[in-house]
Amino acid sequence: MSEQSKQFWAGVRAEIPLLIGGFPFGLIYGALALNAGLSKAAAQVMSFTVFAGSAQFIAAQLVHENTPGFVIVLTIAVVNLRHMLYSASLAPYLAALPVLWKVLLSYLLTDEAYAPTILHYEKEGLTPQAHWFLLGAGGVLWLDWQLGTALGIFLGAAIPESSLLDFALPLTFIAMLVPVLRGRPAIAAALSAGVVALIAYSLPYKLGLIVAALVGILVGTLLEGKKQAGGIS
Amino acid sequence: MNIWLVMLLGGLITFAIRFSLIYLFGRLHIPETMRQALRYVPPAVLSAIIFPELFFHEEILDLSLDNTRLLAGLVAILVAWISRNTLITILAGMLALFVLQWLS
Known about the structure:
heterodimer, A: mainly alpha, 2 domains, 79% helix, B: mainly alpha, two-stranded antiparallel sheet, 5 helices, 2 strands, 4% strand, elongated
């Protein structure tokens, strides 16, 4: 086996545990996106274009609330901004690649592809064919996510709309929120954003969401800075 | 804005973020404050969506015990905290809402 396919399949293998979690998540996304009012085609196309789990769930919820398009795009940008950290972290390893490789690997750079890839680079160092590992990990996750979405759309079309199912999307956000509430700054960020979202609920264009998110981010960052300045770890 | 334009722009911006420092390697650095701030994006955005979903009932703030979504949401938070499982949390929250709606 060539070094390239060896790296590629190592990436695929490293991704397998993440595929098991990713598939039902894609399935839930597909089903709930339909329930939120997206067409079947739009729900699937979002998995192609945006290809980022939490941002897609949030966009579906915003479509459901009749949020103006520019606020949805802005929210997707805020939610996915953290991918810049992955981009920075992998940049030195990908620096020598042709630009088309950089484009392809950037498109595939999700949380789930980043995690095994950075571990691989840290363990093996930079080898000439190591980018095939990211292609394997990111590529197989891409396939997993598209198929999960498609099956979710198929199943979602069969489920009748109800007030119970309407509640599934907020519940998904609760399931995503609780694990990230580690430490006081994170909890304060969540509480302040939540309270501001209630106060700013009636702002035009549903901009309350963006305002609330920015306040929460600011509160978390300030509290963390203060903690460091005070010398308490 | 048309839904297809939203998908296209949302995708292009997401791609641009992922491509940014891979492309600009060595020419742009992320300030430490921004690294810190990015850590608070998930808790802030998620609860900015969750709070109105739980507290507002037909566009009115509802803090009463009749607000079944709020109570079911609290049950879901507890279940999420214990189980750390998305599917179990969704099912528990929907079951709680079903029971509460039936009781009220």
